[in-house]
């Protein structure tokens, strides 16, 4: 049978208005479900004027006035099209026609929940949902709505992140669980575990979530199956997680995110080749990869010793704009450095330098500091007494070639770096001679031109070293005023570091030197 949408699309716009009431009234009994009528009416609200839709509404109310479910769907149709006054009028009529019907009360609650940012709206929504339970205690819908309302509050409180809101979050989550358990007690046959599993999963209570899902496994949708598998992954039972995700994919072969969960479980089982297969499939079927996906895949490439591909994969984390992106990138850099250090610790300086060169080549943003770190590998080789003279000479030549790259491609950074190295070397032999180098280092780092190619992190390191040296140097040379000045400058870039507090205390008259009488 043609749907009302198909029929109305075949006739002219002029005739539609005349025929719409007749079309509604001619729907067969099988088509006259409240939802079908509501959908058809919603389409009318979208495409016709208020006068025209109100005219049709009167016809429908006359025919279905004793069916509150239909009236609730008409109210829902108005609400979905932002006709709030008409929606409330229709729902009030439905409640008046049958005060014992839950459907219009639930719809009223939905309206108030939608306008959650209005004063007392969520409390009012709860009142209507609770009334729906009172009139139809065996209906599952109002229970689920209340549980959803509590979890909505849980999210709102989580966004605020105060101590009081943390307590409210816990209460909201506990209340949602209590409501669903009450539903289960009233209707033991109802699969409340579907909702409970989702809430437990969201709260990070993965054992409880897995237990709930296991009781309704034949009813799980694709995303619930995926959550079920992730529960076992987070518990640490990677084999069970893999078993669940494989079962889920048999049932829902087109659900793309099973590839992600399979990759995670395979990574946990150290089946790295198979994990990369799942990662590649994930790349093919979805554009919504997250930072965890690239972080795990990058680690696998790193375990294979492929620093270049690992780095390229890690840098894809940038593209996810994930809240975990910065943490994962920081951890990725640490893993790469650890891998290269492990290579170097066995005396394989040249191999370590090659890996570092691969890392630099794969980086999206390179800096003079990257090459400085690479040169340091050759410098360690030069200092290694176990290396032969020929190896020392090779290391010197390679270090010089890296410094040449810095000088050629990063002249401003080279100027900063050279100031830093000169200051450090002078400080080791003649502290007085190091003073002008450190003063020059401060000047170069703070200069907008020469300091432009130095990262903020490196600037902090350079300035901290200079301020600390000059503070201590001046203190030892009885220039307390200058010592305090540089100690304050050190504190300004290291607010949580109290190592120079004894010098700062001199300014307050509490230190050993310059004590006020």
Architecture overview:
It comes from Palleniella muris. This is Tetratricopeptide repeat protein. By secondary structure, the chain is mainly alpha-helical. Helices cover 76% and strands 0% of the residues. Among the domains are: 289-409, no CATH class; 440-517, no CATH class. It has 28 helices and no strands. Helix 12 (206-214) crosses helix 13 (222-235), helix 15 runs antiparallel to helix 16 (272-285) and helix 24 (411-429) runs antiparallel to helix 25. It is elongated. Mean pLDDT is 84; it is low at 6-31.
Encode the helix/strand succession as letters: HHHHHHHHHHHHHHHHHHHHHHHHHHHH
Helix percentage range: over 70%
Low-confidence stretches: 6-31
Structural class: mainly alpha
Mean pLDDT: 84
Share of β-strand residues: under 5%
Give the overall silhouette.
Answer: elongated
Tally of extended strands? 0
Short characterization:
This protein is 76% helix and 0% strand. It is built from 28 helices and no strands.
């Amino acid at each position: 049978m043609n749907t009302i949408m198909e029929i109305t699309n075949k006739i002219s716009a002029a005739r539609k208005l005349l025929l719409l009431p007749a079309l509604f009234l001619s729907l067969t009994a099988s088509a006259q479900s409240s939802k079908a009528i509501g959908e058809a009416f919603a389409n009318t609200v979208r495409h016709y004027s208020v006068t025209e839709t109100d005219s049709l509404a009167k016809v429908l109310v006359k025919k279905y006035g004793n069916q509150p479910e239909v009236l609730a769907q008409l109210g829902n149709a108005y609400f979905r099209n932002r006709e709030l006054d008409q929606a409330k009028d229709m729902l009030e009529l439905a409640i008046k026609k049958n005060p014992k019907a839950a459907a219009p009360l639930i719809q009223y609650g939905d309206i108030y929940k939608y306008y959650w940012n209005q004063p007392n709206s969520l409390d009012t929504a709860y009142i209507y949902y609770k009334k729906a339970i009172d009139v139809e205690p065996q209906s599952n819908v109002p229970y689920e709505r209340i549980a959803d309302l509590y979890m909505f509050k849980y999210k709102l409180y989580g966004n605020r992140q105060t101590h009081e809101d943390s307590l409210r979050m816990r209460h909201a989550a506990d209340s949602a669980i209590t409501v669903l358990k009450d539903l289960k007690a009233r209707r033991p046959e109802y699969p409340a575990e579907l909702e409970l599993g989702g809430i437990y999963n969201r709260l990070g209570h993965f054992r409880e979530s897995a237990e709930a899902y296991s009781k309704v496994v034949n009813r799980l949708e694709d995303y619930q199956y995926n959550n079920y598998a992730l529960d076992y992954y987070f518990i640490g039972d990677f084999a069970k997680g893999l078993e669940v995700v494989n079962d889920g994919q048999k049932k829902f072969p087109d659900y793309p995110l099973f590839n992600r969960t399979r990759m995670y479980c395979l990574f946990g089982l150290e089946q790295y080749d198979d994990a990369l297969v799942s990662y590649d499939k994930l790349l093919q079927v979805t554009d919504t990869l997250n930072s965890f996906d690239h972080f795990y895949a990058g680690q696998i490439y790193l375990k294979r010793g492929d620093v270049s591909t690992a780095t390229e994969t890690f840098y894809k984390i940038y593209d996810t704009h994930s809240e975990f992106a910065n943490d994962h990138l920081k951890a990725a850099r640490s893993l790469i450095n650890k891998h290269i250090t492990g290579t170097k610790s066995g005396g394989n300086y040249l191999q370590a330098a090659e890996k570092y060169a691969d890392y630099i080549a794969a980086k999206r943003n390179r800096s003079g500091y990257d090459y400085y770190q690479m040169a340091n590998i050759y410098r360690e080789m030069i200092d290694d007494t176990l290396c032969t003279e020929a190896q020392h000479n090779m290391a010197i030549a390679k270090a010089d070639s890296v410094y040449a790259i810095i000088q050629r491609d990063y002249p401003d950074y080279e100027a900063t770096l050279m100031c830093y190295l000169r200051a450090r070397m002078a400080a080791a032999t003649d502290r007085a001679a190091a003073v002008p180098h450190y003063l020059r280092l401060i000047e170069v780092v703070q200069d907008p031109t020469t300091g432009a190619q130095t990262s903020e992190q490196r600037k902090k390191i350079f300035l901290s070293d200079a301020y600390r040296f000059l503070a201590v140097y001046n203190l030892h040379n009885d220039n307390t005023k200058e010592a305090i000045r540089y100690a304050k400058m050190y504190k300004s870039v290291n607010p949580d570091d109290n190592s120079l507090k004894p010098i700062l205390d001199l300014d307050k008259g509490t230190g050993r030197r310059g004590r006020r009488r």
